[in-house]
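Action item from last week, closing it out:
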Amino acid sequence: MRRRRLLAGAPALLAGAGCVNPPAEEPGSAGRPWHHGPDGFRNPPGSPERGGSFADWLDFFWRRLGRREPPPTLPPGHLRPAREGLAALDRPERPDTLVWLGHAAFLLRVAGRTVLIDPFLSDYASPLPPFGPRRFAPPAIGPAALPTVDVVLLTHNHYDHLDLPTLETVAARDRPALVTTLGVSAYVQGLPWRAVHELDWYHRAEVLGLAITALPAIHFSRRTLFDRNRSLWCGFRIEAGGRVVQTAGDTAFGPVFDELARRYPPPDLLLVPIGAYEPRELMKGSHCTPEEAVAIGTTLGARRLVAMHWGTIVLTDEPPFEPPARFRAAARAAGLEVERQALVPAIGETVSLG
């Protein structure tokens, strides 16, 4: 079963493990939500669209496939020992915590539950290792060493977010509940989930005492050449124990965040993507810049921002360790206290929700 899934996904290597935003779809049928197009899902009205000519994209793909550069050198302090994150999750005096596992993967402990978000913990974001993007920084905690997981959140189906080997390990060991968005559970069908909740945008599920809402994001979905935008992408809002933790998901910046600000009170903690943004003309329809990540946070009124989606794997053209400096500079320009309100944790570092 797993081998068939991987072979079916082989063409996604040509898309750089899911870094390319397909063209916008035509309008859908009357009476359907805007993002339900006639041939699949699409981004909210007014969202940026990808640019670049066919030659630009061909050049980008060629450089991705032909890249043979040595992995970047990790700066001091980029990676914390796994034991630190595990110990922090077990401290009774700080029960509500967040540990960055690398890329967009987090372990969230809130209201006595452990939530695993977008757990890409394998070596390759690819259907056919050893081909495709390879991580240059190990995960903070390997799949087998994770604490017992109660809930898994998957924002979309790309290989750097939906990692089958990790999910197979966690599901077989813990039987967690799965919360994802429309169409995504088909990619993990057959795993022993406690329950499966597929949500449309703005829909909410009550799961083991957690209120989890799927929110719009500006991105796309594809895992093979034949399933473009057949499943939905999203961010999540997690409410429990008097706290609100939100992940923007993999997203560009657009008017939909004004809509979210009107609908929901500000989150206590917001996870924002700061990497995979160059070449800008190609990536503007699916990934925000570090400056736009700060704009997402200020638009939503988030009390604290936590940077993610960087420092783990090379997906696009910007220098791998450029995003944090730009993120911090943008946060200062927006009037945020960088050390308190715009956090760039090390892989394995713990952030208290208090």
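Closing note: The mean pLDDT is 88.
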